[in-house]
């Protein structure tokens, strides 16, 4: 093996493997969430309806004008969440496949990093902006004892954030390996 080929080699362990594994874990998780929301539609539909209706909050008159009580709009929001979860799962599954292919071929990990980034940012938008900010603050979900998804949303933001950090660590996409080109 020449010196140049050993410099260009992407390791099968270390950061690329960690990035691939974390991306795969998040892909599996959000795929199961989407599957559950499709096959057990009513359970989380009730959650979305109650959060948007703000019917289990403190009912502060200054906030209740934000409530969405139309079943049509509540169901549209829930269908939008399911579609976003499904699309996110597909993007992250593709990213996981790109990591696996890139490590096997010992090249092409930058594309895996890009697709992982897109999928992980989609998850952060859903749970960070959607559930924490909009649900938690705008619709005062934090006030509800029965329909409060802030803890679950925080777990999702944490997992996606950690995965995103690992994906972007120097070396996760074989950057040191590409330095010799």
Quickly give the structural class. Answer: mainly alpha
Alpha-carbon distance between the two ends: 16 Å
Percent of residues in helical segments?
over 70%
β-strand number: 0
Principal-axes geometry comes out as elongated
User: Rg from C-alpha positions?
Assistant: 20 Å
Task: Describe the fold and architecture.
This protein has 181 residues and is an all-alpha fold. The chain is built from 7 helices and no strands. The protein is elongated and about 60 Å long.
Features:
single chain, about 180 residues, about 70% helix, 7 helices, mainly alpha, elongated, disordered C terminus
Summarize the helices and strands and which ones pair or pack.
Layout: H1 3-8, H2 15-39, H3 41-53, H4 71-105, H5 109-138, H6 150-167, H7 175-178
Quick overview:
The protein has helices at residues 3-8, 15-39, 41-53, 71-105, 109-138, 150-167, 175-178. The protein contains 7 helices and no strands.
């Amino acid at each position: 093996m020449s010196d140049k080929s050993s410099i260009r080699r992407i390791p099968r362990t270390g950061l690329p493997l960690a990035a691939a594994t974390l991306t795969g874990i998040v892909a599996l998780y959000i795929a199961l969430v989407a599957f559950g929301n499709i096959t057990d539609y009513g359970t989380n539909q009730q959650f979305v309806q109650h959060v948007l209706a703000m019917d289990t909050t403190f009912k502060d008159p200054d906030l209740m004008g934000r409530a969405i009580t139309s079943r049509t709009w509540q169901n549209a929001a829930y269908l939008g969440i399911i579609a976003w979860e499904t699309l996110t799962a597909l993007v992250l599954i593709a990213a996981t496949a790109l990591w696996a292919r890139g490590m096997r071929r010992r090249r092409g990990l930058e594309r895996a990093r890009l697709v992982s980034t897109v999928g992980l940012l989609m998850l952060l938008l859903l749970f960070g902006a959607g559930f924490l900010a909009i649900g938690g603050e705008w619709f005062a979900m934090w006030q509800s004892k029965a329909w409060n998804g802030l803890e679950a949303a925080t777990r999702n933001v944490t997992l996606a954030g950690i995965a995103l950090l690992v994906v972007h660590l120097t070396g996760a996409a074989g950057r040191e390996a590409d330095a010799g080109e």
